[in-house]
Amino acid sequence: MSKHSGLAIASFFLLTLFIFSLAACKKKKIEKQKTEDEKIIKEYIASHNLNATPTGSGLYYVMTSQGTGIQPTSASSVTVYYKGYLTNGTVFDESPGAGASFSLGSVIKGWQEGIPLFKKGGKGILLIPSSLGYGTTSPGKIPKNSVLIFDVELLNVQ
Q1: DSSP string spanning 103-152?
Q2: What's the pTM value of the predicted model, to 2 decimals?
């Protein structure tokens, strides 16, 4: 084996080790954030005396009224009245009174999973961990890694 091929093998080994180390570090950060989000959501539920149900993905929901109409799928287009706020009560978005219409395929994962839990006419609260929201990005008034709370009413399913 030549000196150059030995160096190439060693360099490849070190590069591979470095990549695996970065991936492990990123995974630890993600797990730490999930744990923190879970703690924040549970504290919010307790302090607001909510009867919330977990879905297993990190999303929690409160079903005030399930509704009686059509139940959407994650591929449906819907009209929803909503108010979005942070756990400290800061409102970051609210639909007009007539609601906002959109395809569930074009919104955050927390909505893709949460809105189909309701039937048309249903009302409730979605408590969304950052991994199902905006994650490490900071759109507008929403800080990165924020837990999001939404009051929702499913007005229509198209």
Answers
A1: EGGGS-HHHHHHGGGSPTT-EEEEEE-GGGTTTT---TT--TT--EEEEE
A2: 0.83
Helix (H, G, I), strand (E, B) or coil at 60: strand
Kindly give the confidence (pLDDT) of every residue in the chain, 158 residues in length, as a single tens digit, with 9 standing for 90 and above.
Answer: 555 555 555 555 444 544 444 455 566 777 899 999 999 999 999 999 999 999 999 999 999 999 998 999 988 999 999 999 999 999 999 999 899 999 999 999 999 999 999 999 999 999 999 999 999 999 988 999 999 999 999 999 99
Structure tokens at 103: 């395809």
Q: 60: left (phi > 0), else alpha (psi -120 to 50), else beta?
A: beta
| Assigned token pair, 111 | 């909505």
Q: What is the set of domains in the chain, with CATH numbers?
A: 39-157 (3.10.50.40)
Residue 91 · residue 155 · CB < 8 Å:
no
Q: How far apart are the first and last CA of the chain?
A: 67
The DSSP output letter for 100 is E
